[in-house]
Amino acid sequence: MRDSDDPLRAQLRPPALTALLLAIGVAVYSFGGFESVQLHVQADEAASPYRVHVNSLIGKYNITILNDDPLLYIIDDFLTERECNAIMESTGGLERSTGGLERSITSYRTSSTAWINTEAITNATSRSILTGVEERIAELTALPVENQEHFQVLNYQVGQYYKLHNDYIPQHRYMPCGVRIATFFLYLSEVPEGGGTSFPAINIVVQPRRGRAAVWYSALPGSLDIDTRVDHEAMPVLQGEKWAANKWIHAGNFADNWKKGLTG
Fold first, then answer.
1. With a cut of 50, which residues of the chain have pLDDT below it?
2. In the chain, which end has fewer C-beta atoms inside a 10 angstrom radius, N or C?
């Protein structure tokens, strides 16, 4: 059996988790006909496994913890100029953003979107660059690359927004990919005014900055239940334009199940 076929080994494969295992335990449970991995804090009930892992990487990355519970942090200079450009140049065209698994156009989301499947990029240099970004995201979230959705690139013009929402999709609980555990949000451009990511429940607005990443967790630590405290909105752009990208990360293997048509 390959590591990627074993849910326990897939979750524990990143080397950075060696120290983390001293603070957490791993339990396997059956949900909707498939197995996933659930992390339970054992040694320190006050610290989520997410925070324990992030702490171990603060010296390596330019991490700032904005909020402890729920955990929200930013990584400045996560992307280089070259990486920002490579992501934007790999889009192949934008379409009106949609919402939910229904992929419906709605008035609460007015940006434009393009999806990038890294494996399908024909330019070898760009494919290598984006693969490297995905590997760093896996390191920071302690979730394997195959759990990541494709890059969703976003463009917001003046006045465009995404009203209050959560990235969690309940229907995913009954799919082998599992729910979205984390959002890794990449800011690809400077925005002269507006365009921040607002988290009203914790009174925080993350401002766009080229190369910055913001990370939050849509599922509560130790469960697959939604954490509504990270409901957020993309504030309207008031001047200039905003380029950004989502990387949504699931509890299970998204990549292989997407190829099988099992992700919704």
1. 1-45
2. N
- Name the CA radius of gyration of the chain, rounded: 18
In our burial notation (b when 16+ CB lie closer than 10 A, e otherwise), range 98-124 reads eeeeeeeeeeebbbbbbebebeebeee
The SS3 of residue 49 is helix
Residue 257: predicted pLDDT: 96
Q: Which of 39, 45, 18, 68 is nearest to 221 (CA)?
A: 39
Predicted pLDDT at 99:
66
DSSP string, the chain: --GGG-HHHHHH-STTHHHHTTTEEEEEEEETTEEEEEEEE-S-TTS-HHHHHHHTTTTTSEEEEEETTTTEEEEET-S-HHHHHHHHHT----EE--BTTTTB--TTB--EEEEE-GGG---HHHHHHHHHHHHHHHHHHTS-GGGBPPEEEEEE-BT--EEEE-S--GGGGGSTT--EEEEEEEE-S--SEE--EEEGGGTEEEPP-TT-EEEEESB-TTSSSB-GGG-EEEPPEEES-EEEEEEEEESS-HHHHHHTT---
With H, G, I as helix, E, B as strand and everything else as coil, classify residue 244: strand
Provide the 8-state DSSP code for 4: G
Residue 95, CA distances (Å) to 51, 107, 221 in order? 36, 15, 34
Cα–Cα distance list, 143 to 71, 99, 180, 239, 246 (Å) = 16, 25, 11, 36, 16
pLDDT at residue 19, as a whole number = 34
Token couple for 182: 């984390």
